[in-house]
Specification:
Length: 371
């Protein structure tokens, strides 16, 4: 069995065994973490931070988690709602007046959070570099017409989610989403997660490794649903080489360009599973957590092509809520058990051609420790 470092409470030994098994076959480097009642009960890692398997994956290794970032971006909105600074039932235009253009005056904040705003695509940008221009992208979204009547249907907002939520946060607070997250979430919790990664953290970054037999030209050509289906992508195709670039790390694309490891992902999201606090630090009230698991939309997602239940910022699956990222990272929280489980890795898997159950194996192993 592959060497797994870190600590694991004995009753969660199945999680360590699951990570060791993954590292002994498909995995290159990975981390897994379980938080219970806002405290770590599993914090483990192993393998390598590079494709050549020459650099060990360390305790503080971080990597790009792609759409797992959406969980962090959503939390920022819920914090503002909990403080009374943002009304989830208010029109977006109440905070961002220009957004009322082209028939969007009735788009509510909760529509944006639940992928029901009718803006699944960016109409303007065609290159990754254009995504780095925040004001241009958000001005384009403000001018865009919705693809359907907001609130009546859902379609996964793969890239637009972060710009929409991020601009709402910026209008309310005067801070970028990355700044707000760093100051109001990561710093108080001591979480090593970043949206807009400062240069001094670069040496901790494990570059993403394209799926076996593919190169770093491999692109997130379109969102993939939990059943592996995808629709034709319109707009920007993001390649592995883009996600591994310094420019990507510096930018703020809050739907997809967060950097962290399983410990930081699980720590931050555990506040929602544990009535608003983790490690003795209160981030929001118990009531403020509830929108994370309260259903906003249920039905077939037009983009993913699969049945989905969306809450204010999260996918809901039975009693759990959370979301995963392109390539395989994943976080799930269970407020009934007060448990959050996260899995972060550098070896991507192409779900078009191969099942990727790695994150689910970690989650199921964690549940076995509850009984």
């Amino acid at each position: 069995m592959t060497d797994v470092k870190g600590f694991c409470e004995p009753r969660f030994e199945a999680v360590r065994a699951a990570l060791a098994a993954l590292l002994s076959k498909d995995e290159v480097g990975a981390s897994a973490a379980v938080y219970l009642d806002g405290e770590p009960v599993v914090d483990i890692w192993g393998g390598y931070a590079d494709a050549n398997r020459s650099v060990a994956w360390e305790r503080d290794t971080i990597t790009g988690v792609n759409s797992t970032t959406k969980n962090m971006t959503a939390l920022c909105a819920l914090i503002l709602a909990d403080r009374g600074e943002l009304d989830l039932s208010a029109p977006v235009a109440a905070y961002w007046p220009e957004f009322a253009a082209a028939g969007k005056e009735n788009v509510l904040v909760r529509h944006v959070l639940s992928h029901t705003a009718g803006l699944p695509n960016l109409s303007g940008p065609t290159t990754v570099e254009e995504l780095y221009d925040w004001e241009n992208v958000t001005a384009g979204l403000a001018a865009q017409a919705p693809e359907w009547e907001p609130g009546t249907a859902a379609g996964y907002h793969a890239l637009t989610f972060g710009f929409l939520v991020g601009e709402i946060v910026r209008r309310v607070t005067g801070r970028s989403l990355g700044e707000f997250f760093a100051e109001e979430v990561a710093k108080p919790l001591g979480a090593d997660f970043h949206i807009g990664l400062p240069t001094e953290h670069d040496h901790w970054v494990a570059l993403l490794i394209p799926p076996p037999s593919l190169t770093d030209e491999y692109a997130a050509s379109a969102p993939i649903g939990p059943d592996g289906t995808r629709r034709e992508n319109t707009g920007v195709a993001i390649r592995v080489k883009d996600a591994n670039s310094p420019a990507w790390r510096r930018a703020q694309i809050p739907a997809v360009n967060g950097f962290g490891n399983a410990r930081s992902v699980a720590l931050v999201q555990s506040v929602l599973a544990n009535q608003g606090s983790a490690g003795g630090v209160r981030v929001l009230s118990p009531e403020g957590c509830e929108p994370a698991w309260q259903e906003v939309f249920r039905g077939t997602d037009r983009v993913l092509g699969t049945p989905m239940c969306w809450t204010a910022g999260f996918g809901k699956f039975g009693n759990t809520f959370g979301w995963g990222g392109w390539g395989g990272s994943l976080v799930a929280s269970d407020p009934d058990s007060r448990m959050t489980v996260a899995y972060v890795m550098n070896q991507m898997i192409d779900r078009d051609h191969q099942d990727d159950n790695r994150g689910m194996e970690i989650i199921m192993a964690a549940y076995s420790g509850l009984h």
